[in-house]
Each structure stands twice: as structure tokens, then as C-alpha cells.
Write a structure and sequence with these properties.
There is one protein chain. The protein is of the alpha/beta class. It has 17 helices and 26 strands. The protein has a nine-stranded mixed beta sheet, sandwiched between helices. Strands 4-3-5-6-7 form a five-stranded parallel beta sheet. Strand 1 and strand 2 form a beta hairpin. Helix 7 crosses helix 8. It is globular, with a radius of gyration of 23 Å.
């Protein structure tokens, strides 16, 4: 099915059940379908067949409608991160060759200085009345627009969205996902991590992130999606209470924020009271945080391992496996899970030779949900996609029973004094300290060691602490649990960590910041 058919049952055009719920409004499924129908014609009017339509906006129902309508018109949606600088947005526009830009009024104002330099953009369309060359409202209501049936129809294998693959190392690449790949990701998620018939799902991530496939999943199941404009803990908790939210997807940083906010409320037990399931996967969940959240919230946890190039998640760890892990099966809480239906896994060495179970190597994934490649980047496409397999860049191990454990991102292996250190292992140990909220471990160039292990720690905001004592306690804990060469040589206490839209720590940016820290400061 095409994306709009996947998300909205064609036989229920006038369905009055809720589809998208925002802090200020509710769109029924019938209203969403009508908007998609109008915007399909609008997309055909502002871009040529196969043309790219960029979207720069926060999370709102109109963006969901555009993500469905643009491919239906045979055009390609290019959702762009609103946190990028104007120059970075210009780079994304130029790289995609977008001929139309759809944006909110604040975003158009922010980008006004660079838009004249956007070589391919011919038209700006404002999501707000009066913004852009023409407003979306006026465009979608124009009587002379071609109808969806006269627009060039999309196809299952035509590019649907171009999404920036996680930009944790250098310039982000545009992964090309299709209706087929997104539909496959939805199907395997529906089988491995199903939504119940009475679930109300809250989606807190930006719609320019691949995790937006979760919105397609919920809509395809007929379940309402609660859509905050952006994540903040008080708003999410208020929406969860108002609409009796039962399921959420959360990055570890988001879960930590919700727990911290909940702890400040007069009646913590009433906060997130209807929540039954928390899905995560944007980054590894620290074990201490997982155990704390399971105990305090009483919810089931479901992990999904995936990435932009996989159009969503492909490997899953169920609530039952999490329960068993918390009760003592140590290997489960550190694992990514088992592949979903239609997904094949393989561990290979640097030459691409498959390795036996138990041997660490690069994780490769094959299935219909693998994207078709990187937009305008044949060299990277050839390198990452081979014979139907995606080479993920992650280092992992497959057990005899097919359980996948991610050891680390290949680029996050720190080589210090000739020894390899997996940053996640160090993060898990430090993250187990009761006063640590978040931690990131990176390798920093060092004359003596080649790379030195550095840890950047964010303390819990609800806990008083003495910085010197906290660093000493963390260092002592690291020395207790880790070989000497794995113990951080430098430790920095920070207010926060740089994270991207998906909740992943931007380690390249963190290394850049640390390069300016005096080598003798904050030594552990």
C-alpha cells in the first residue's frame, strides 16, 4: 500500500474517531483524510513529478498530512531538522534539490537571509496564513488544483521521503525511504511490538526523524496519536493525563526527564498513571535507568533497534524479555533483541565475511525495510548497501539463539594505549551511580595514549551533590568495575549533553567541545 492507504483506511473516509491530538486541537480520521486529499493536489501544483518538497516545521497535524500527501502525488518529501542553523538548512535544500519549501512563519523568518542562495527552491509555502509566497491553506483550497486522481500517482518503490541519517559523524546523508520500506518497517513492528486495540499512543519525537514511522504504525492500527509540538516533560505528562495515554516511544534522555519531573509533583503516583508500555531505541537504555523506571512506573518496556536506513526498527526486545532481564537474566537487558518478521541479520568482519555466533563484528541487516540508498551519494550507497544487505556500522554479537547484542558503534570504539575500549561499557558502569542522570564516554586525542577515555557526566537535577566528591565516587566506581585501561582519564561535569532529534548523543560535537577543555582540568 502507498503511505496514505497504509495510514488511513480508504473505506472509512468519514471516520469521526480521533487520529491526531495536539495540545490545542483534535483531527478526526475523516479530517486527516480530507487534508491528505487536498494536499495531494497541492503537492502536484507546486512541484514536478519526482520533485522534492522540503518541510521545516515543528510537529503538527499538517506535517503528518504532508508526509502522506506528497508521496501520493508522486513527489518526494524532505523533512528537515528545525534545530539546524540557516546555513545547514540551505545545505540540506541544495543537497536534496528541493524546488518547494513548506515552513512555519517563524522558520521562514529565520531562513529569510539564506533562501535567496537556495539554488533550486522556486516556491515557499507557509504553514501559517500570510507566510511564504503562498499559504498552505490558500494553496490547498484553490479550485483550479488538479485532483489526486489526475496527479502523478506514487509507487511502492518510488522515493517517498528523504531523511537525514543520524549526523553524529560529519555531514548527514539523506536516506531514501519508500512506501515499501516504510510499510515493511510498520509490518515488522506491528508483529513484534503490537499496539493494543485500546492503546492511545504519544509520539514525542520530531516528525523529521525516521521514528515518524511509529505514527504510521499507530494510524494503521486505527489508534489515536497524541502529538506534542516538541518534547518537554511537563507538557508530555499533562497530555498523557488528559488523554489517558497508554503507550509512548521515548529516548533514554526523555525517560530520565519524565521521571525527574514526576518526582517533583505533589502526587507522583498520579503522573503517567495510565501508561502501560514504553518503547525505546534511539540510544541504549542505561540499565540503572531501566530498572528505576520499571519499578516506579510499573510499565512494560519494549526495545527496538533500528536506524534511518532501516526505515524504522528491525530488531526487538519484548516486555517479557525485559521482565526476565530485570529479574536476573543479565544478558537480556544488555541486548538489542531478536529480528522481527522478514528481517535477516548477519555479523561480518572487515572483509565482509560472515562470522560465527559469539564473534563480534559489523551488524548487517537484510529485508524489505532497508532503504534504497543515499540521495545523490552513490559512493556512500555502494559502500553501505551490498547485495541487499545494509552494513550498519554497528559492532555486535549474535548468540546461538539469534539474540543480537550491540557492543558499540564502530566509531565509538576507543583505542587507548593499544587497547580497545567500548564506550557503552564504561557508560553503563558510570550510569549506575545513583546521582548520575546521563553520561557519554568518548575518546579524545592524547599524546601519551593515542586516545584518552573521557567521561562527560550530567548529575541528577533533583539531587544535591558536591562536584569534587561526586567525581571521586564515580572514579572509584569505575575502578571497581572496569579494567584500569577502561577507567576514564578525564571526567567533566556538565549541565547537559548535545543530542540530536532522535535523542542520540552527538559525540562528534562532544569531542569538539572537549578539545577546548584544558588537559589538566577535571581529571578523574
Amino acid at each position: 500500500m502507498l503511505l496514505h492507504e497504509l495510514a488511513l483506511d480508504p473505506s472509512a473516509a468519514a471516520d469521526e474517531s480521533p487520529a491526531l491530538i495536539t495540545p490545542d486541537d483534535t483531527w478526526t480520521r475523516g479530517e486527516l483524510r480530507a487534508a491528505v486529499t487536498e494536499l495531494t493536489g497541492a503537492a502536484a501544483a507546486v512541484a514536478r513529478p519526482g520533485g522534492r518538497i522540503a518541510i521545516v516545521a515543528d510537529s503538527r497535524p499538517e506535517v503528518v498530512a504532508l508526509l502522506l500527501a506528497i508521496p501520493a502525488a508522486g513527489r518526494i518529501a524532505v523533512p528537515i531538522n528545525v534545530r539546524l542553523t540557516p546555513e545547514e538548512v540551505l545545505d540540506a535544500l541544495d543537497h536534496s534539490g528541493a524546488e518547494t519549501l513548506v515552513a512555519t512563519e517563524p522558520e521562514l523568518a529565520r531562513l529569510r537571509s539564506v533562501l535567496p542562495a537556495a539554488a533550486t527552491v522556486e516556491t515557499t509555502v507557509g504553514l501559517d496564513p500570510g507566510a511564504g509566497d503562498i499559504s498552505l491553506e490558500t494553496l490547498s483550497a484553490a479550485p483550479a488544483l488538479p485532483t489526486p486522481t489526475s496527479a502523478v500517482p506514487g509507487s511502492l518503490d518510488a522515493p517517498a521521503w528523504i531523511i537525514a541519517a543520524s549526523g553524529t559523524t560529519g555531514r548527514a546523508r539523506g536516506a531514501v525511504v519508500t512506501a515499501r520500506s516504510l510499510g515493511a518497517a510498520v509490518s515488522t513492528t506491528a508483529a513484534a511490538r503490537p499496539l493494543a486495540d485500546d492503546d492511545v499512543y504519544l509520539y514525542p519525537f520530531p516528525l523529521y526523524h525516521v521514528s515518524a514511522y511509529n505514527v504510521l504504525h499507530a494510524l494503521s492500527r486505527g489508534r489515536p496519536v497524541v502529538l506534542p509540538l516538541r518534547f518537554d516533560a511537563p507538557t508530555v505528562c499533562a497530555l498523557a493525563e488528559a488523554h489517558r495515554v497508554t503507550a509512548m516511544s521515548l529516548a533514554p534522555t526523555m525517560l530520565r526527564s519524565l521521571l525527574d519531573h514526576r518526582g517533583t509533583q505533589p502526587d507522583p503516583e498520579s503522573v503517567l498513571a495510565d501508561l502501560r508500555t514504553v518503547a525505546y531505541g534511539a540510544a541504549p537504555m542505561p540499565r540503572a535507568l531501566l530498572v528505576e523506571a520499571a519499578s516506579s512506573l510499573g510499565v512494560g518496556f519494549a526495545q527496538g533497534y533500528g536506524m534511518t536506513e532501516l526505515s524504522g526498527n528491525a530488531v526487538f526486545l519484548s516486555p517479557e524479555h525485559h521482565r526476565r532481564g530485570i529479574e536476573g537474566d543479565g544478558r537480556l537487558l544488555g541486548a538489542a533483541g531478536w529480528p522481527g518478521p522478514g528481517v535477516e541479520l548477519q555479523i561480518v568482519d572487515d572483509d565482509g565475511t560472515e562470522l560465527p555466533s559469539g564473534e563480534p563484528g559489523e551488524v548487517c541487516v537484510r529485508g524489505e525495510q532497508v532503504c534504497t540508498g543515499y540521495w545523490g551519494d552513490p559512493e556512500s550507497t555502494t559502500s553501505a548497501f551490498r547485495d541487499g544487505w545494509l552494513r550498519t556500522g554497528d559492532v555486535g554479537v549474535l548468540d546461538d539463539d539469534g539474540l543480537l547484542t550491540i557492543v558499540d558503534r564502530a566509531k565509538d570504539i576507543i583505542i587507548t594505549g593499544g587497547e580497545n575500549v567500548a564506550s557503552r561499557e564504561v557508560e553503563d558502569v558510570i550510569g549506575g551511580h545513583p546521582l548520575v542522570s546521563r553520561v557519554a564516554v568518548v575518546g579524545v586525542a592524547d599524546d601519551q595514549w593515542g586516545e584518552a577515555v573521557w567521561a562527560v557526566v550530567v548529575a541528577r537535577p533533583d539531587a544535591e551533590h558536591d562536584p569534587v566528591r561526586l567525581k571521586a565516587e564515580i572514579a572509584a566506581r569505575a575502578r571497581r568495575h572496569l579494567a584500569a585501561f577502561k577507567v576514564p582519564k578525564q571526567m567533566v561535569l556538565a549541565e547537559d549533553l548535545p543530542i540530536n532529534a532522535g535523542g542520540k548523543v552527538q559525540k562528534a560535537e562532544l569531542r569538539r567541545r572537549l578539545s577546548g577543555v584544558h588537559a589538566g582540568a577535571d581529571q578523574a
